[in-house]
Structure formats: C-alpha cells, structure tokens
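Sanity check

After download, print the first record. It should look like this:
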Amino acid sequence: MTIKVLYFASLREQLGRSGDEFDFEKDKLSSMNIGNLWQYATSQSSFPEELLVAVNQEYTDQFALLNDGDEVAFFPPVTGG
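Expected structure tokens:
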C-alpha cells in the first residue's frame, strides 16, 4: 500500500525535500489519517492547525482516512496582498 506525499513552498524548505513515498502494510493504512501521516512523515508530534492539505488534488482535513495510491499534498497557509 503506497502513499505519495508532496510538500510545497516553505514546508519544502523546512523539511529539506519536496516529497516522500511510503509503503504501509494494509492493516496499518486502513486506520491511518492525514494527521497520523504528517506525524509519521515529519516526526512532529502534532498536526499544525494552519496547515492546508489536499488528497488527490481535493482539499480535506487532518481526519480524512487514506487509501492505497493516494497523493497527499501539504501546503503552508496562503498569504497574499
């Protein structure tokens, strides 16, 4: 079971990479949500409240469950002027 993770903008700079690909056993993936994935991928203890996330190019929240083959993208908050 594979999940592709992409990091954008300042997240890419902070983490020092643009993405990851993780292989999980089926039983572990069946209960994994976005928040758990963030913690696993970054070794951070919690999901940042202001973080934006999309699964398969659709915005969602940290509680969305993952499926085999999903592409997860993490974005810092958008600012503009």
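If your output differs, re-run the checksum step. Summary of this record's structure: The longest helix spans residues 34-42.
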